[in-house]
Design a protein that fits this description.
The complex is a heterodimer of chains A (305) and B (156). Chain A has 305 residues and is mainly alpha-helical. Chain A folds into 2 domains: 56 residues, no CATH class; 248 residues, no CATH class. Chain A is 68% helix and 4% strand. The chains are: A mainly alpha (305), B mainly alpha (156). At the A-B interface, β3, α3, α4, α5 and α7 of A face α1 of B.
């Protein structure tokens, strides 16, 4: 909840800032007016400081929570896998098998090549994104306030939903992008890979026309290639970020009297219910698109005509 | 929300989790699930076969029961026939036995009669001699008249 001193705008901004850890250069004037006499690695104390830290900044909250969620996923599934019995699956194993079966079904529907990598990748994407998105179900101030109290710093930035940080979603989507390129080269050879981006989509039987078409083809193909990871990452980020902002706005209403406060309670509940749909859906979409893109990287026959 | 090195960190975490999943999660789970699928398929197959077997066994049992009944009927019939035959045979034997006994008795009787007649004859000869002696008052030479007397006895 916004404390008395902070305005609504401060509250929103505070909630949209990650816990950035980076280096501030020497001579930098900090938020409280102190001037640094040497470069120092520290937590950003304002959005401006976070901006000024440059590229080599780490969002500790994003990394921390995504790693925690990843470990939760790995631990649960690993435990289930270790205790898995062929006869009479129960409890955790049934649930895990349900998820695995669902992912496996989706993968075999979309991806028609042989790969030991795609299905586990899809499972990881689906569960991990789902778990990271699920952090949204927690009331927006619980974890940040707990963290602030624990650290003894009321100003601590703490964003608990990793997927509302574009770094997290783009980090995943660019990994997928690298996989697309790697698999394309592996499946089609380097020449085939180059051909795909120069002699496509426009292609004739005369080599000199083809040569003229290369720049045009290349531009088109590269744009469509780069659009894949960007749209993949930004779609997830956009959906989660927008939902988060609505949650923040609803949370502001809690401080605005009994009537608006109880209305906020109803709204928060309704929005959370809506997210019961959004959260798995976005995880599913991210997984399906990952599979589709990788399937396209594997498709050889379709490209050579 | 600036793009920064968090992206790289996230990427590394992503790769690590995917590799973990690929090595320790996916293969054992999938192998267990496939093994179970196979087992269930086999079980259903076996159940189908057992159903068929049961049907066959039922048919066979019915068939056997029918055959057994037929055989039993046959046996009873044969036994009845045999019993009739045995009774018939016994009757016949009894008849024969009685006939035999009767004829033996008859033969005995006849023999007795013949013997009695023989004795009588012998005695008649003697009596006749005595009577004749008495009548003639003389003794008869047994040896000279014996042949005649024997002839007389034989004519009796």
């Amino acid at each position: 909840m916004a404390s008395e001193a902070t305005t609504s705008i401060d509250y929103i901004q505070h909630h949209l800032q990650n816990m950035a850890f980076g280096q501030l250069p020497a001579g930098y004037v900090r938020y409280d007016g102190t001037v640094l006499d040497q470069p120092v690695w520290t937590l950003a104390h304002s959005s401006k400081e976070a901006m000024d830290m440059g590229f080599w900044t780490f969002h500790l909250d994003t990394l921390g929570w995504s790693v925690v969620m990843g470990i939760v996923f790995c631990a649960v599934f690993w435990l289930a896998a270790r205790r898995a019995a062929v006869t009479s699956p129960r409890g955790l194993q049934s649930f895990v098998e349900l998820v695995v079966d669902f992912v496996n079904q989706t993968v075999t529907d979309i991806f028609h090549h042989k790969s030991r990598f795609i299905a586990p990748l899809s499972l990881t994407v689906f569960c991990w994104v789902f778990l990271m998105n699920s952090m949204k179900f927690l009331p927006i101030d619980w974890l940040p306030m707990t963290a602030a109290l624990t650290a003894g710093d009321e100003h601590l930035y703490f964003k608990v939903v990793p997927t509302t940080d574009p770094n997290a979603t783009l980090g995943m989507s660019f990994t997928v992008f690298l996989l697309i390129i790697a698999f394309s080269i592996r499946e089609k050879g380097f020449l085939g890979f180059v051909k795909e981006y120069t002699l496509h989509p426009f292609h004739t039987n005369k080599w000199y026309v083809n040569a003229l078409l290369i720049p045009f083809n290349f531009t088109l193909e590269v744009i469509s290639l780069v659009a894949k990871p960007v749209s993949l990452g930004l779609r997830l980020f956009g959906n989660m970020y927008a939902g988060e902002i609505i949650f923040i706005l609803i949370a502001i209403m809690f401080g605005a009297g009994l009537v608006l406060g109880s209305l906020a309670g109803v709204l928060q509940w309704a929005w959370a219910v809506f997210h019961l749909l959004v959260i798995p859906l976005q995880a599913f979409v991210f997984m399906v698109l990952t599979i589709v893109y990788l399937a396209m990287a594997f498709d050889v026959a379709d490209e050579q005509h | 929300m600036n793009i920064n090195a968090t992206l790289i960190g996230q990427s590394i975490a992503f790769i690590v989790f995917v590799l973990f999943c690929m090595k320790y999660v996916w293969p054992p789970l999938l192998s267990v699930m496939q093994a179970r699928e196979k087992r269930i398929a086999e079980g259903l197959d076996m159940a189908d076969r057992a159903d068929k077997d049961l049907e066959l066994a039922k048919q066979k049992a019915a068939q056997q029961l029918k055959e057994a009944k037929e055989q039993a009927a046959l046996i009873v019939e044969q036994a009845n026939k045999r019993a009739g035959k045995i009774v018939e045979e016994a009757k016949l034997q009894a008849q024969e036995e009685s006939d035999r006994l009767k004829s033996a008795a008859q033969a005995d009787l006849e023999r007795e009669v013949a013997r009695a007649r023989e004795q009588l004859r012998a005695q008649v000869a003697a009596l006749a001699l005595v009577g004749a002696e008495k009548i003639l008052g003389t003794s008869i030479d047994l040896s000279s008249h014996n042949a005649m007397l024997n002839q007389l006895a034989a004519e009796l």
